[in-house]
Amino acid sequence: MKCESFQNRLLALPSPAAPTPELAAHLTACGGCRAFAERAGNLDAVVAALPVPSSEVAKAAFLDSLAALGPVIHTKPSILSADPHSSTFRPFHALARRVDWKYAGGIAAAFLVAVTAWTLWPANRPPVAEKDGPRQELLAKQNKHLAALASADSADARLRVWADWTTDLRAATADVYKAAAPGDLAVLARMFDKAVRDGVLTHADRLAHDRLATGRAVLLRDTQAKMASAREQLERIGKDAPPAHKSNLKRMADTALEAQTKLADLAKGV
Amino acid sequence: MTADRPGTPTPPTRVPLAPDATLPDRESDWITAAQAGDRPAFARLVDAYWDRLHRWLYHLTRDRHRAEDLTQETFLKALAAIGSFRPGSNFRAWLFRIGHNNFVNLKRSERRTVVALPDETAGTTADSDPEKVASDREQLARATAAVAGLPSDFRAALLLRAEQGMSFREVAAVLKITEETARWRVFKARQKLMTVLEPNESAGTVEG
C-alpha cells in the first residue's frame, strides 16, 4: 500500500485513532506513516479540546425564563388521541387546533428572526454594559411571548400574545428612543410594524370571522384601545425625540393608528 | 480534485453509531413529556444539550454572543416545534439541524457585514499546570486558527464528528447532505488540519 493511500484512508475513517487491521499492517512497516497516524489519532481530540467561552449565565437565564412560565404549556391537541365516542369529540375542531399549532411554530420562527436581526444589528453599537441591558430585557420578554405563542391554541389567545408583544416593543422604544442609535430604532420600528400587521391584524381578522369564538367584540375593542394607547404614546415621545428618530416614531404611530381604525371596523362587524 | 479522495472510498456497509447517540430511556421520557407540554421536561433537555450545542455553534460563528443567541434561538424553535418531533428518532440530530438552519440564516443575513474575527476565549481548559499550559499554548493557538480557517461547511462536519462524536450518518442528517458527502467533508477537513498543523521538524525526524 502506498503511503498516500494509507494516509487518505486513515483520515477517512470514523476515528483515525482506530485504524483497520489492513491499515495497521502498513504501520508496522512504515515509520513515516506511524508518525502520521499518531498525529492523526490525536487530531479529533485536539479539535474537541479547543477552548470555548462559558455560556453558563445565558443558559441559566434561559432555564429561568422557562421555569418562570409555569410547569405546563398545554397538551398538544391530537386527532388520533381524541376519543371519537366522546360527546365532545369534534374532528374538524381538533384538526383546526392541530393546524394552529403548526402555524404557531411558523410565526414563532419569523418572530425569532426579527428579534435576532435586532439583537445583531451592528450599526453604532454602544459599549457592552450599556447595550446589553435593554437588549437582554427585550430578549427575556421575547422568550416569554414566544413560548406563549407556541402554546396559544386559538385565534383569541394568539391575538392577545401579539398585542402584548406590541406593547413591549412600544415600551422598549420609549425606554431607548433618546439614546438609541438610529439603526436600532429603525429595527424596532420594523419589528413593531411587523408585529402589528402580521400578528395583531392578521389574528384579529381571523378572530372576527370565527363565529364559534366567544367574546370577540370585547377582545377586539380591548386591542383597539391598546393600539390607541400606543399611538398616543408614540406621538407624544416623537415630539421631543432627536430629529434622527422622528421618522421612525411617526411610522410606528401611523401603524398603530391604522391598526386602531381596522380593529374598530372589525369590532363593528362582529 | 479527485486525486485527493481517499484511496478506497467505499464506505462500510453499516456506519456505527456514536456511543451516546442512542437515546437513554429518560431522555425519551423527557421528550414525550415535553411534547405533552411539560416545561420542566423540556428544561431537562435544554440542560442536557445546551453546552454541546453552544460549543458547536461557537466554533461555527466564532463569536460568543452570536453563539449564545443562536443556542437560545435553537431551543426556542425546538420548543415551538417539539410536537412535530417523531418519537424514537434522533433528538440530538434534530436539535443540531435546527441549530444549523439558524446558523445558515444568520450567515445569509450577515453577508453585508465584515467577517467575524475569532473571539477571544475565556480559556476554559481545566489544566492548571503552568508549564503544560505554556507548552500547549502555541499548538492550541495554531489549532484554533486552523479550525477557524476551514470553510464553514467542512468545519461544521468535522466538529460534529470530532467534538460531538456523531456518526457520519448523524452528521449527514444534521447538515442535510448525504452520508458520503459527510465523510468527504470530514476527511478534507482533517487533511487540511494535518497539513496546517504539521510540525516543522517532522520531515527530518520520521524514522524509516
Tell me, briefly, the overall form of chain B: globular
Distance between the termini of chain B: 30 Å
How many strands in all of chain A?
0
Q: Which structural class is indicated by helix and strand composition of chain A? A: mainly alpha
SSE order of chain A: HHHHHHHHHH
The assembly state of the depicted protein chains is heterodimer
| Overall residue-averaged pLDDT value of chain B | 78
Helix content of chain A: over 70%
| Radius of gyration of chain A (Å) | 28 Å
The low-confidence runs of chain A, each spanning 5 or more residues with pLDDT under 50, are 73-102, 123-131
Biggest pleated sheet of chain A? none
Topology, number of strands of chain B: 0
User: Given the structure, what is the number of helices of chain A?
Assistant: 10
Low-confidence spans of chain B:
1-22, 112-127, 201-208
- What is the structural class of chain B? mainly alpha
Q: What percentage of the residues of chain A does DSSP assign to strands (E)?
A: under 5%
Tell the overall outline of chain A.
elongated
Helix content range of chain B:
55-70%
Query: Largest sheet of chain B, if any?
Result: none
Give the N-terminus to C-terminus distance of chain A in angstroms.
Answer: 82 Å
Share of β-strand residues of chain B: under 5%
